[in-house]
Amino acid sequence: MLETVTGGSLKVLKDGDMQEIHQATLDIMEDTGIKVHNKRALEIFASHGAQVDKGKKLVKIPPSMVEDALASTPSSVVLCGREEKYDLHLSKTNTYLGTGGTVLSTLDLETGKKRPTETSDIAGYARLTDSLENIAFFVINCYPDDVEIEDVDVNRFYHSLANTSKHVMGGIYTMKGLKDVISMGEDIAGGKEKLLARPFLSFITLMMSPLVMETDYTDFLIEVAQYGLPIATPSEPLAGATSPVTLAGTITINNIESLAGLILVQLINKGNPTLYGSTSSIMDPRSGIYLSGCIESALINAGCAQMAQYYDIPIYATGGMSDSKVVDCQAGYEKAATALTVALSGANFIHDAAGLLEFCTTLSYEQMVIDNEILGIVLRATRGVEVDSEAIAADVIRSVGPGGNFLAEEHTARNVRKEFFMPKVADRNTRDKWENMGSPDTHTRAREKAQKLLREHKPLGFPEEVEKLLVDRYQGIKKRSVQEK
User: Fold this and answer.
1) What are the residue boundaries of the structural domains of the chain, listed by start?
2) Environment class of 271 (CB within 10 Å of its CB; exposed 0-12, middle 13-18, buried 19+)
3) How far apart are CA 207 and CA 213, in angstroms?
4) Chain centre to alpha carbon of residue 330
5) Distance CA 198, CA 440 (A)
6) Is domain 5-13+71-383 given the CATH code 3.40.50.12160 in the classification?
7) Which residue from 213, 232, 234 is spatially nearest to 224, judged by alpha carbons?
8) Which residues, at least 6 apart from 25, have a Cβ–Cβ distance to it below 8 Å?
9) What is the pTM of this model?
10) Which helix (H) or strand (E) holds 154?
11) Maximum CA pair distance of the chain?
């Protein structure tokens, strides 16, 4: 059973700040507008009363349209697992953390060398997600280099769903792929009604900064919204490059862009489960490089989380990344700082928080195991200090009295496991015991654990008849590797 913790103790914006950002959003949407390259989207906006200049591909959205969309967007969204114990209840400041990225490279678990990702890596990272208790969901985190583009989508979702029964979310590369993945979801669920009743898969569509909706992603958005599955509409402005260098300016442009996608979803299918989103960060002013492990990215995402709370809608946010090239100290402190900041803000669905290195371009199996431990610490900190009569333990204090100890008390046995976070990778042995064990460092311990989990963990998988149906019906699926069986 996934632990649901409640964040929201960190406030990077004051109440008046949120109103000011909201007003700027309404003003810019109405007087500057959004460039929309998708013809179908232009027609949808126009038919609902937006001011549309088809020649300039410019859509100006009135405040009433914004308010109507916010009113119809569900305040609570349940992203289901294939097993109910993995359901994510996204509302208010409920907080979950998981994977993300869609990277092209991984550090090989056996050699440590960087290599292209393949379908076996999708399976491997999904299987690790399934086995690691603090990683709540699987946003498909790599691109299979060993299949053709027309088969990428079905392979990404098939190998994910075959190896984890936690919720699976992903981006899409072709319209045929999107339709095949939705059809595959129906095959697994037992039909459209069952898939919509318990959506164990969902999709991501991106807005382009500054203030643009491009053609393909918007086509995917329209398709998903018409079907009725959950969808995230994140924006990815970079402060100092595609958004103002100020964090407030970047939060504002993120707000405009993500709401534009959300509005389009609601115009197509009022009430469709939709996640406001942010993948925002900053550009390194010295090199022009996108940065992922910077604290400013976490602050932007925390600010966006507050905007989502202001609107009372769920948010897809970003945290827990690193710009380090290897599994090292830098990776640890960047990941911990950014994941903790965004979680304390009460963001609901924090992706990219497990396994990513090198500006979100490389994955590591060992890092994913370490990140599971970091996320355990983050979840414990986010849960905070719970105060009630059991926790205060006044009667126990009186009973033990001056000079006693609490080790043998029933109260200690009853509460210690839930009160203390107990790491599984970190070393808490004495130096003598650690040396007698061979003095293993964190990287070594994480590699051994990743190898063991990939070797021994058995995910839910599919019933034999369903797997045969999928492999026969979707011919582009690459056969499952030995690692997956």
Assistant:
1) 5-13+71-383, 389-419
2) exposed
3) 5
4) 22
5) 44
6) no
7) 232
8) 66, 252, 255, 256, 259
9) 0.97
10) helix 152-161
11) 82
Q: What angle do CA 450, 161, 471 make, to 5 degrees?
A: 115
pLDDT at 324: 98
pLDDT at 1: 79
pLDDT in tens, 251-299: 999 999 999 999 999 999 999 999 999 999 999 999 999 999 999 999 9
> 213 is written with which tokens?
């909706």
pLDDT in tens, 368-390: 999 999 999 999 999 999 999 99
pLDDT for 480: 64
By C-alpha distance, which of 131, 158, 147, 150 is closest to 368?
Answer: 131
Residue whose C-alpha is closest to residue 253's, from 24, 38, 70, 35: 24
Name the H helices within 212-293: 215-227, 247-268
CB atoms within 10 A of CB 252: 22
Distance CA 320, CA 333 (A): 9
**Token digits for 149?**
């583009």
Verify cis geometry, omega within 30 degrees of 0, for the bond prior to 210: yes
Give whole-number Cα distances, 408 to 45, 257, 402, 404, in Å.
Answer: 67, 57, 16, 10
